[in-house]
């Protein structure tokens, strides 16, 4: 008999034990359908499908109602979602769950099964748009009365990647859809804690043994110098931006220096002046990423030559977002000194809270697993403190980065992970829920 379990199970779960999945092991496949669907209700059909699919997949069944209520922790490699009998009022909820699946694990693939009649309806536009963005595959549901029903389902699943290696390489999005761009945020550097930064960089080197990633950096303490000059001395915005550019460069070179102390041959600094040619001529390849951890600082002034709008040098979040989208990546990870997204910055000192209490909305400091970018201002307090103790209205993410993310072609997720807890980054890269996620 086929196991009954929550639809979004861990990779290769046997009983209650989560096992690592290698290329030699089966992919995990969740089949999610309404309670009156033949895929769930009819034991004979379920058994037929199971016998056809189980030689190649670790197979799990669940009802759509449970899927829509589920708290996703570790998506399966493939999710097959049957929309038969699902009221159109619930389509948006299913789309939300699909976005959460792809946010947690960008290597997970989702296939939607829908009848021809469902696909012809205007309400199905939600799934068509998700398909165009590369979030889902859409297939016409086979007739359960057909003798080759199970074989037809198997063939549909087979259209999706059938090994982890293919899961990693293919996708409807950009060339580097499944390569995470990881930004070491300024708040990590602000700590000036040798152990924290070294532990993080050692973990990044270990992660690179199995997964490709690209690093960018935030300003940190170095960025405070031009900011102080602008506040105290009144330097022009041009001088402020030029100074910011120099400081971000030094920050990137600092990361390169520290990484080379850990693994001399694994790091590659990518100068901004080479970035136009790097992206135009496809210098960054899968083979290159297997051997090196590239470290970028900022987008060059000539970025418009490759279709990237000119961006203020002081806006490192925006540089990371636009760079990742230019690469065709599906997700960026921001490493910060926080466990995720809270209603208020959890690192605010009591003196600050007492001084500005009236400017905050009342209520407990809720934690958010998922937040949609257009609604960030409604969900969280943007007031916070800079490292210099100044009030800022850009807590969590720069305002200049939000619209580029919303307008991005390939990016669908910004993940907020605590960089002082390296295991959280490990989990994030493995497709296990970690921190919080900004969706669009």
What would you note in describing this structure?
Helices cover 40% and strands 18% of the residues. The chain is an alpha/beta fold and 440 residues long. It folds into two domains: 42-167, Rossmann fold, CATH 3.40.50; 180-439, Acetylglutamate kinase-like (Carbamate kinase, 3-Layer(aba) Sandwich). The chain contains 19 helices and 19 strands. Helix 10 (194-207) runs parallel beside helix 19 (422-430) and helix 11 runs antiparallel to helix 12 (237-262). The radius of gyration is 23 Å and the shape is globular. The strands form six sheets. A six-stranded mixed sheet has the order 9-8-12-18-19-15, with helices on both faces. Strands 4-3-5-6-7 form a five-stranded parallel sheet. A two-stranded antiparallel sheet has the order 1-2. The chain has helices at 38-41, 43-53, 64-69, 91-104, 116-120, 125-132, 149-159, 164-169, 186-190, 194-207, 220-232, 237-262, 275-280, 286-291, 316-327, 350-356, 376-379, 399-407, 422-430, and strands at residues 13-14, 17-18, 27-33, 57-63, 78-82, 109-114, 137-140, 180-184, 213-217, 267-270, 293-296, 331-336, 341-342, 367-368, 370-372, 384-385, 391-392, 413-418, 436-439.
Output the CATH class name of the largest domain: Alpha Beta
Helix content range: 40-55%
User: How do the strands of the widest beta sheet line up side by side?
Assistant: 9-8-12-18-19-15
How many extended strands? 19
Classify the secondary structure makeup into a structural class: alpha/beta
Q: What's the average pLDDT?
A: 83
Termini separation = 39 Å
Q: Which oligomeric form is depicted?
A: single chain
As a percent range, the share of strand residues is 15-25%
**Major sheet size, sense and barrel closure:** 6 strands, mixed
CATH architecture of the largest domain: 3-Layer(aba) Sandwich
Identify low-pLDDT runs. Answer: 1-24, 162-174
CATH superfamily of the largest domain: Acetylglutamate kinase-like
Identify the overall geometry: globular
Instruction: Report the total helices.
Output: 19
């Amino acid at each position: 008999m086929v196991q009954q379990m929550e639809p979004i199970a861990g990779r290769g779960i046997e009983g209650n034990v989560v096992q690592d999945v290698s290329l030699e092991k089966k992919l995990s496949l969740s089949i999610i359908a309404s309670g009156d669907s033949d895929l769930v209700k009819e034991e004979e059909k379920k058994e037929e499908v199971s016998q056809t699919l189980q030689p190649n997949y670790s197979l799990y069944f669940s009802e759509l109602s449970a899927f829509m209520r589920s708290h996703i922790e570790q998506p399966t490699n493939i999710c097959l979602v049957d929309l038969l009998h699902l009221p159109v009022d619930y389509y948006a909820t299913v789309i939300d769950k699909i976005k959460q699946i792809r946010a947690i694990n960008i290597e997970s693939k989702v296939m939607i099964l829908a009848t021809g009649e469902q696909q012809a309806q205007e309400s199905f536009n939600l799934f068509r748009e998700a398909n165009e963005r590369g979030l889902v595959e859409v297939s016409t549901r086979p007739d359960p009365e057909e003798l080759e029903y199970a074989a037809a389902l198997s063939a549909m699943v087979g259209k999706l990647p059938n090994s982890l290696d293919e899961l990693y390489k293919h996708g409807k999005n950009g060339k580097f859809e499944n390569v995470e761009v990881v930004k070491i945020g300024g708040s990590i550097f602000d700590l000036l804690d040798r152990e924290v930064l070294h532990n993080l960089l050692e973990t990044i080197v270990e992660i690179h043994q199995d997964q490709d990633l690209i690093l960018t950096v935030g300003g940190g303490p170095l960025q405070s110098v031009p900011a102080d000059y602008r506040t105290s001395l009144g330097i022009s915005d041009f001088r402020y931006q030029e100074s910011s550019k120099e400081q971000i460069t030094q920050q990137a070179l600092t990361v390169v220096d520290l990484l080379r102390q850990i693994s001399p041959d694994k790091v590659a600094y990518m100068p901004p002046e080479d970035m136009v040619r790097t992206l135009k001529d496809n210098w960054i390849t899968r083979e290159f990423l297997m051997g090196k951890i590239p470290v970028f600082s900022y987008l060059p002034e000539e970025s418009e030559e490759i279709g990237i709008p000119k961006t203020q040098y002081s806006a490192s979040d925006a540089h990371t977002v636009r760079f990742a989208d230019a690469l065709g990546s599906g997700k960026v990870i921001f490493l910060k000194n926080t466990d995720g997204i809270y209603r208020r910055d959890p690192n605010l000192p009591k003196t600050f809270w007492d001084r500005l209490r009236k400017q905050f909305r009342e209520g407990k400091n809720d934690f958010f697993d998922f937040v949609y970018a257009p609604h960030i201002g409604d969900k969280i307090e943007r007031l916070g403190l800079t490292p210099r103790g100044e009030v800022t209205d850009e807590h969590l993410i720069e305002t200049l980065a939000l619209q580029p993310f919303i307008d991005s072609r390939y990016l669908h997720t910004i993940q907020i992970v605590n960089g002082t807890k390296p295991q959280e980054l490990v989990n994030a890269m493995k497709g296990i829920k970690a921190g919080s996620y900004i969706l669009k």
